[in-house]
Amino acid sequence: MPTQSPVAQGPHKPVGNRADAASAPPAERKPAPEVQSSGEVTVVDPVMVKRAVSAAALGNAMEWFDFGVYSYIAVTLGHVFFPSGNPTAQLLSTFGAFAAAFLVRPIGGMVFGPLGDRIGRQKILAITMIMMAVGTFAIGLIPSYATIGVGAPILLLVARLVQGFSTGGEYGGASTFIAEYAPDKKRGFLGSWLEFGTLAGYVGGAGLVTLMTALLSTEDLNSWGWRIPFLVAGPMGIIGLYLRMRLEETPAFAQLEKEARTKEKARREAEKRIGIREMIFGQWRSMLLCIGLVLVFNVTDYMLLSYMPSYLTSELKYDETHGLLVVLGVMVLMMGVQPFAGRLSDRFGRRPVIAAGCLGFLVLSVPALLLIRQGSLLAIALGMAALGLLLVAFTSTMPATLPALFPTRVRYGSLSIGFNVSVSLFGGTTPLVVTALIGATGNKMMPAYYMMAAAVIGGIAVLLMSESARKPLPGSPPAVENEAEARDAVRAARRPATAASTA
Prior knowledge:
The protein is 78% helix and 1% strand. The chain has 25 helices and 3 strands. A 3-stranded parallel beta sheet has the order 1-2-3, with helices on one face.
């Protein structure tokens, strides 16, 4: 049984003996179910895997810096693009444009997913990052409503659609890339760095908006200051693309690409015959689980990181600068906890960690929001920190959990479709729906009730899903860090066959 290393350079020593395997009795030659798909054990180089993870996380950070800036400056954008005497109507219009980007995300996933299989995942991730940067940079150039009238919100909507289309190809590709090349026993830890990149992007966006809010008067911010965070996206996109392309040009990444193409050539030919119908209905149970898990993940994510800054300002009349600083502090706290929570999911399992997050949101959403509504800095910080730590249960585990729902032959396409459909219907619409519910009912506790409903759906998905920690991905061979672990995996795979032969 040979080993292959999709990230290590140079020749690879075989684990096991081909001649022995060929001469063995048929019963002994039958591989165990976990390696039946390829008859191989993948030996990865941890240093090279970390470089690959860094490249994916970097792109994610760039994507979500661009996406996050829009959220944190939503109140100002309402004044610039949607003038109205009603602040709630302004905020609804702004979040409406925000939500519109999510309507095209499934289309982006269906376009970029197959392309990622044909021309390479890193190439697609670079393309989506540039598209996001261009869309964000364009927002900074759009004249205000006072200058060109209704053309301003129309151009804003077009730029948001470009952002949404590009983002449709980002998460599925990045999480699949990391999951397929990470060692089985560290997939949770390594996958957690993808969302670490997301949080880093949010921190960068929130920090820049907070700085602009603190340094500029309201008049300056409304007239020209709001453009600066969007214009920064242009040079940041160029820098991010340069760094990613430099990583791709190293010998390790060239070897990775070459071996991945060789190893997956047959699978890709088979995938070309797999239509959207099979990706969705052929995996209907996994698809529903994916949608449920992504729902609780993204509803709580967008509630805390995108909606709460505007909630503090528009609904609770809290000082905008202090509100953004609190959110910024919560995200820094989450970044510190993220890798440790990923390790916990490797040790104790994905299901216990995700279940703890669902239970926490079900029980603590109302108390946390009551704390936030008290209005003092300490109370708001405690309430937001509680929600942030609960959210880590999802951000640290989902990059490893979601790819494990689908077999290799449909993983990229099915995950991209399920993820983006759920985000479009539930995650990205969270600020819009909650703002509308508050406006219709006058009940400012709606954010808590919405998170509790999401937690119930996520909890059901957790009960129905299988544990995937420390196991090979469906349809993929075991992935280990060194030759010794590879030999252990080979011996473990042969034991059932030997036992069956003896019996």
